[in-house]
Write a structure and sequence with these properties.
The complex is a heterodimer of chains A (353) and B (353).
Chain A (H helix, E strand, L loop, with lengths): L2 H17 L1 H20 L8 E6 L5 H9 L3 E5 L3 H9 L5 E4 L4 H6 L4 E8 L4 H18 L6 E8 L10 H30 L2 H7 L4 H26 L7 H25 L3 H23 L13 H14 L3 H30 L1
Parallel strand pairs in A: 1-2, 1-3
Antiparallel strand pairs in A: 3-4
Helix pairs in contact in A: 1-9, 2-7, 3-6, 7-9, 7-10, 7-11, 7-12, 9-10, 10-11, 10-12, 10-13, 11-12, 12-13
Chain B lengths: L2 H14 L4 H21 L8 E6 L5 H6 L5 E5 L2 H9 L5 E5 L3 H6 L4 E8 L4 H19 L5 E8 L7 H31 L2 H7 L4 H26 L7 H25 L3 H11 L1 H11 L14 H11 L5 H27 L7
Parallel strand pairs in B: 1-2, 1-3
Antiparallel strand pairs in B: 3-4
Helix pairs in contact in B: 1-9, 2-7, 2-9, 7-9, 7-10, 7-12, 7-13, 9-10, 10-13, 10-14, 13-14
The chains are: A alpha/beta (353), B alpha/beta (353).
Chain lengths: 353, 353
C-alpha cells in the first residue's frame, strides 16, 4: 500500500470536491440548514392540558383529579375577564367558571351549571375531553367513584414529565442525513474520474487499484464522518457516551461510502449518480423517520442497514444506553458494512476493468 | 402542428428528465420542504391518543369506546400482542377487559383491570385516555352526572397556524419549480447545446418544441401540486375544483417559463434573473404568511391569482362562487401569456418545410 500516494490522492479529491460548486454549496448549505432546522424545532414538550378556573371555591374532587392525572393542570384565575383573556391568548385550553354555590349544589345533588370558555379554533375533540373531565369531577364530588382497580404497568422508561423534545428526537435523523448526502459527493467524484477516464490514468502510475479505492474510501468516510460529528457537537448531541456515538457515526460513514461506490458504479455522470442516489437515500432515511414516529414502522424496518445506526444513536442520546446495550446493533452494522462495502468495491472494480 | 411529434418530444423529455438534477429536484424539493415545514410546525405528527384493547369476553365497553371522537382505538386478540404494541409505541395505553367485566361493574363489585402504559406516551394523552375510559364505563352503567355544561366560544377570527400559512408558499413552489423553471431550463439547454436548431431542421417546428416543453412543465407541476395538497391534508371536499385551479396555475407558470426561455440565451443568465426577480413571484405568499400586512398588495402580482383560489377552496372550504372572480382573472392572465408566446414564436426560424 502506497500511503504517500493515497495521501496525495485524498488531498486532491478534497480540493476537487470543494471546487465543484454544486457539491461545495450543498455541503455547506446542508450543514447550516440541518443546524437551523434543529434550532427551529420545539425545544420542549408541553404535555399538559392547562385549564383556567374561576371559582369562589374549588371542589376537592378537582384537586384529586389534578393530583392523579399528570397531564392536567388547573390554574386559578382572579376574574372571569382574565379567564376569557387567557383562553383567547391561548394560555388555557379552556376556561371553567363554577358558580358561587358549587358545593351546595353538588351536596344536594342538584344540577350543576358550568360555563366553559373555548377559543374559536379549539378542535371538537378537545372540547369533548374537557366535558369528560368536568363530568368525572362531578361524579367524584358526589361520591360516585368507579370501583375499578387499575393494575397499571408502564412499559419502557417512564418519560412522563421528561419527554424528549422533537428537536432532540430528530437529531439522529439529521446526523444520518448529513452522512447520506455526502454519499452524493463521493459517488459524483468517483463517477467523474470514470467518465473523464482519469481513473485509468491514475492506474498507469505506481498507484494500484487497492490504493485508489483506499483513497476514495478515506475521502468519503472523512467527509461524512467529520460533518456528522461537527453537527452533533454543535447541537450538543454527543450524550453521555460520546465514544459510542463517534463509533456509530464512523461505521455509518463506512456504510454510506460503500453505497457511494455502488451508486458511482451504476451512474454515468453526476446527474445520473444523483438520480440513482435519491431512492437509496430515501430508503435509508426510513428508520430515522421511524424514530420520530415511534410505532409507525413495523419490524421490517430492521432489514434496512441504517436502522442499526439510527437506533444506536437514539438510544445512547436519550436513554443512556451503554456498550452492553448496543453491541448487537454495532455488530449487525459491522456485518452490513462488510457486505455493502465489498459489493461497492466489486462493482467499481468491474467497471474499471 | 402535429400531435405525434409533440408526443415524441414530450416522451423524450420525460424519460431523459430523471437524469437531470433540476428535474429530480422539481419532484423532491417541494415534498422535502413540505415535510420539513410539517416537522417544524408539527402538523404531521400531531395525533390523538391511541388506545389498544383486548376484550376477553364480549364487553359493550368496546363499542362505547369506539364512539369516542377524541381517541383512536385498536383491537387485539391476545394480551401479549397488546403488550408488544404498547412497548413499541403503536398504542399509548393498552386495556385488557376481563371476560366478566360488564356483569361485575353492573353488580358494583370491584374489578381488576390490567392496563399497559407506553413509557414515552404524553401525560396529556394518558389523562385523556383515563378520563375517557372512566366516562364510557359510567355510560355502560347508565350513570348520568348532574351537570349541565354551557360551552362559550370566544373570538371570531380563526387562528391561522403557521403550517397553514406556509401551505400557499409550498404549493406555489411546486407549481413554479415544475411549471416555470423546468420548461425554461429545458428550452435553454436545447438552445445552449444547439439541439433546437437540429430539431428545426427536421419537420418539427419551434412551436411544437414549445408545446412539448409546456406539456412537460404542466404535468410535473400538477402532479407535485396534488402531492403537496395531499401531504398537507388540504385536498378538501372539492378535489376536482382544486385540480382545475392547479391546471390553470400551472398554465401561468409554464407560459412565463417558456417566455423567459425564449428571451434568454443560456441557463446561467436565466437563473441570475430568477434569483434577482424571483421574489416577485412569491410576494403574495409572503403577505399571506403575515396577515397583519395589507393584503391588497398581493393583488398586484399575478401569482396571487394562483394562490388565493387554492387557499379559498383547500383551507376555507370555499366553492366556485367565492373564487369565480379571481379564477376569471387567472384565466385572462393565462390567455394573455399564451398570446405573448404566440407573438414570440412568429419570429422564430424554421429550416424545414
Amino acid at each position: 500500500m502506497n500511503w504517500r500516494s493515497i495521501g496525495v490522492l485524498v488531498v486532491k479529491d478534497i480540493s476537487l470536491f470543494f471546487r465543484n460548486r454544486l457539491f461545495a454549496v450543498i455541503t455547506m448549505l446542508g450543514l447550516v440548514a440541518f443546524t437551523v432546522i434543529y434550532f427551529l424545532m420545539p425545544s420542549s414538550v408541553d404535555e399538559t392540558f392547562e385549564i383556567g378556573l374561576y371559582a369562589p371555591l374549588v371542589p376537592p374532587a378537582l384537586e384529586v383529579i389534578q393530583e392523579e392525572e399528570e397531564g392536567l393542570e388547573i390554574i386559578m384565575v382572579e376574574s372571569e375577564d382574565s379567564l376569557q383573556k387567557g383562553v383567547v391568548d391561548g394560555e388555557y385550553l379552556a376556561g371553567l367558571v363554577l358558580p358561587d354555590d358549587v358545593m351546595d349544589v353538588l351536596l344536594q345533588r342538584e344540577i350543576l351549571q358550568v360555563k366553559v370558555y373555548f377559543a374559536s379554533d379549539t378542535p371538537e375533540e378537545i372540547r369533548d375531553v374537557v366535558d369528560i373531565i368536568i363530568t368525572e369531577m362531578v361524579f367524584l364530588q358526589i361520591g360516585q367513584p368507579l370501583d375499578i382497580e387499575w393494575n397499571e404497568e408502564i412499559l419502557g422508561p417512564d418519560m412522563a414529565g421528561s419527554q424528549i423534545p422533537q428537536r432532540d428526537r430528530i437529531r439522529p435523523l439529521l446526523a444520518v442525513m448529513i452522512i447520506m448526502f455526502e454519499t452524493f459527493g463521493l459517488a459524483g467524484l468517483v463517477s467523474e474520474e470514470i467518465q473523464r477516464r482519469t481513473a485509468w490514468a491514475l492506474l498507469v502510475t505506481p498507484l494500484t487499484v487497492r490504493d485508489l479505492f483506499t483513497a476514495k474510501a478515506i475521502m468519503g468516510i472523512l467527509l461524512a464522518f467529520v460533518q456528522a460529528v461537527l453537527f452533533l457537537v454543535i447541537v450538543r448531541g454527543m450524550g453521555e457516551q460520546p465514544l459510542i456515538i463517534i463509533t456509530s457515526l464512523f461505521m455509518g460513514a463506512v456504510l454510506l461510502t460503500g453505497f457511494g461506490f455502488i451508486m458511482a458504479s451504476l451512474g454515468k455522470d453526476i446527474l445520473s449518480v444523483t438520480a440513482w442516489g435519491l431512492p437509496v437515500i430515501i430508503v435509508l432515511s426510513i428508520p430515522a423517520f421511524g424514530v420520530l414516529v415511534p410505532g409507525a414502522a413495523s419490524d421490517w424496518i430492521k432489514v434496512i442497514p441504517s436502522y442499526y445506526l439510527t437506533d444506536t444513536i437514539y438510544r445512547v442520546s436519550h436513554f443512556e444506553a451503554s456498550w452492553s446495550d448496543v453491541w448487537g446493533n454495532l455488530l449487525i452494522l459491522m456485518g452490513f458494512n462488510v457486505a455493502i462495502f465489498s459489493v461497492g468495491i466489486l462493482a467499481l472494480r468491474r467497471k474499471l476493468q | 402542428m402535429k400531435l405525434r411529434r409533440i408526443a415524441v418530444l414530450l416522451r423524450k423529455d420525460l424519460f431523459q428528465g430523471p437524469k437531470n438534477f433540476l428535474f429530480v429536484w422539481a419532484f423532491l424539493g417541494p415534498v422535502a420542504i413540505s415535510l420539513v415545514v410539517s416537522l417544524v410546525f408539527g402538523t404531521l405528527f400531531t395525533h390523538e391518543p391511541t388506545l389498544g384493547i383486548v376484550d376477553e369476553g364480549s364487553s359493550q365497553l368496546v363499542a362505547l369506546i369506539e364512539e369516542l371522537p377524541s381517541i383512536n382505538n385498536r383491537e387485539y386478540t391476545e394480551s401479549s400482542e397488546l403488550r408488544e404494541a404498547v412497548a413499541s409505541g403503536v398504542v399509548d395505553v393498552g386495556l385488557v377487559i376481563p371476560s366478566d367485566f360488564d356483569s361485575l361493574v353492573s353488580q358494583g363489585e370491584e374489578v381488576s383491570v390490567p392496563v399497559y402504559v407506553w413509557g414515552e406516551s404524553l401525560a396529556q394523552d394518558r389523562t385523556v385516555l383515563a378520563v375517557a375510559i372512566a366516562n364510557q364505563i359510567r355510560e355502560l352503567l347508565g350513570e348520568e352526572a348532574p351537570v349541565e355544561i354551557e360551552a362559550v366560544t370566544l373570538g371570531n377570527e380563526m387562528n391561522i397556524p403557521w403550517s397553514d400559512r406556509l401551505l400557499p408558499f409550498i404549493v406555489l413552489l411546486a407549481v413554479v419549480f415544475g411549471g416555470f423553471v423546468l420548461p425554461a431550463t429545458s428550452l435553454l439547454d436545447e438552445k445552449e447545446k444547439r439541439t433546437i436548431d437540429a430539431l428545426t431542421i427536421t419537420p418539427t417546428s419551434v412551436g411544437e418544441v414549445f408545446w412539448a416543453k409546456g406539456a412537460l412543465g404542466l404535468i410535473i407541476s400538477m402532479v407535485i401540486g396534488i402531492v403537496i395538497l395531499i401531504l398537507n391534508q388540504a385536498i378538501g371536499t372539492q378535489p376536482a375544483l382544486l385540480i382545475l385551479l392547479l391546471f390553470l396555475g400551472s398554465i401561468m407558470a409554464v407560459a412565463m417559463g417558456l417566455l423567459l426561455g425564449s428571451v434568454f440565451k443560456d441557463v446561467m443568465s436565466f437563473f441570475a434573473t430568477v434569483k434577482a426577480l424571483g421574489i416577485i413571484l412569491y410576494v403574495p405568499v409572503i403577505l399571506y404568511m403575515f396577515p397583519s400586512l395589507p393584503q391588497w398588495i398581493g393583488k398586484i402580482f399575478p401569482t396571487y391569482y394562483i394562490v388565493e383560489p387554492i387557499v379559498e377552496v383547500s383551507q376555507r372550504g370555499g366553492g366556485w362562487p367565492e373564487i369565480a372572480l379571481n379564477t376569471s382573472i387567472l384565466i385572462l392572465i393565462d390567455l394573455l401569456l399564451i398570446a405573448l408566446i404566440a407573438v414570440t414564436l412568429r419570429g422564430k426560424r424554421q429550416y424545414a418545410v
